[in-house]
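Changelog-adjacent note: as of this version, every example in the card shows the full chain rather than a window. The one below runs 207 residues end to end.
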Amino acid sequence: MKPLEFLAHDRVTLAVVGVLVLAAVLFVAASLGRKNVPTFVSTTPAPIEVGAAMFGPDTITVDATGEEGWRFFDFSSASVVEAPGPMDWDLAFLRHRIVANGGAAFAGDGGLLELGGVEYGSVSEVPSSGYVGSPQLGDTTNAVIERWYNYNWMSHILEPRPTVWAVRTADGRYAKLRILGYYCPGPLAGCLTFEFVYQGGGGTDVR
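Full-length structure tokens:
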């Protein structure tokens, strides 16, 4: 083998080794990241009648792991509801996507409003206006909460942003909400966990 050919061959070998080492480092980093992902067991649907009372704080994990079927949550029953009528749900989930029952796309008067990175416990009252629904038929996410997560490019993990949202329900009542996680044990993506306080009396007090 000529000297130049040997040198070129050596460079190719080093390049291949370098790529393999980099791939191994990235794989290990991703694996380590996944081991630290908070996971939550999905909540079994168990509707109750909240009535005109304040309910919460409560934590719900919605199993929205399916690629096609939306899962519906109703604040007035504090539960996921199966096959609801047009006004019998407030939020719907499909993987990382979230919609509220309001706007031109849906029958309700619901919507979402981002309150920013405030302390969840400090939010004692939510606004009565400024909520955003889904303006177009076929919308598969609500623009206000579309980016509820930060995406980790190393681990490919969705991490909830430290943000609080105000919710107006389909029948015009109010709640506050923060997202805690996106994974069931495994970890399995598509299990949205959130904490909420719901005001069933019609006011905006959510202490």
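Structural remarks: The longest strand covers residues 188-199.
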